[in-house]
Amino acid sequence: MLDLARLQFAVTGCLHFLFVVLTLGLAPLVAIMQTRHAISGKPVFERMTRFWGQIYVINYALGVLTGLVMEFQFGLSWSGLTHYAGDVFGAPLAIETLVAFFLESTFLGLWIFGWHRLPKGLHLACIWLVTLTAYASAFWIIVANSFLQHPVGAVQQGDHLALTDFTALLTNPSLVMALPHIIGAGLFTGSFVIIGASAYQLFRRTQEQEFFRRSLRTGVVWAVAGTTLVVGFGYAQFPIVGRIQPDKFNGVLPGSALGGMILIGQTIQLVAMFVLLPLLIGNVLARSRWMHPILMLMTPLPFVAAILGWLAREVGRQPWLVYGKLSVADAMTPGLTKGMITASFAAFAGVLGMLAVVDYLLIARAVRRGPGAVPLGAAEPAEPAEAAEAATSPALTL
Length: 398
Prior knowledge:
Layout: H1 2-40, H2 43-77, H3 79-113, H4 120-149, E1 154-157, E2 160-163, H5 166-170, H6 173-176, H7 178-203, H8 209-244, H9 252-276, H10 284-287, H11 292-298, H12 301-315, E3 320-322, E4 326-327, H13 328-331, H14 338-369, H15 384-391, H16 394-397
Antiparallel strand pairs: 1-2, 3-4
Helix pairs in contact: 1-2, 1-4, 1-7, 1-12, 1-14, 2-3, 2-14, 3-4, 4-7, 7-8, 7-11, 7-12, 8-9, 9-12
């Protein structure tokens, strides 16, 4: 029964993380595109912002729903964690929900509905605030997770932990290198979605050649930046993990997951830096049609690497949920039966799996349609009276 409950959390956690890592990657890339439009005034950058922003919004909206499923799972299957460490573990989660997530949603709403309504500078600020609050949300989630990896800032009081030093949570050694590693993974993933989608359109000999050449270039440049962060801060975590969790990677599954993550990350880093980046010169990569199917096939690899990394981080501390203090078995909700866990597993995995499929289909449809059919940021048609007035205005009749 314990293994079934663990498998339930692993499956639902992996499915949820697919949405999170893409959100963290696309948000800054869309903000960069809009900034380039604000600086240069070139219409192509506005169209890029709207097109890739539409994909970001699709993923974000469905990702929110997967987060709700994760919240239900904590309350249903792991009440022992809430009882024992809720005063500590719950604090960063509450801050993430009440501050970062709500602010992110607010600024995203202003950005979505502010096209052609807000001043351009204010509208640009909204997407950067979306990015910053998305990273703030990730920060608080990793604060909570890092406490599970290395419980600091708390003391035992009776049968539960009490928070004594909030600053210790924010300077946790398990947190310091993990955050930029996650940010890099997001950039890595978002960039390869842009690369794969651009390669698909270029392979089809789309009429939007300039649009997707520029998108491909943006994806490759930021893929190099993302993989550099991932690999650099990934290796930087090794001595820290070796000190606070010396037995972490002795298990077969964590070692295999870690090895797979490293293999994918380093391979793509080398390919991006020494193959794709030089081929941007003279738009060789955009013109090399034979390479485009390869780029499309590479698109899922960052998602696979992200899941393997998550598994290595989580499974590697077994049998502890709060390392050295609370076992996974003791964290389970008392009174659960195998039938109850099986039913909830089927429900949670079914809902998240359905959302993942819907997310993929909506994004794939948006990519196939191309930038010519993007509702986000489309100029509203003039009202009949306004159109008639504009047609007869002196400025237009001269």
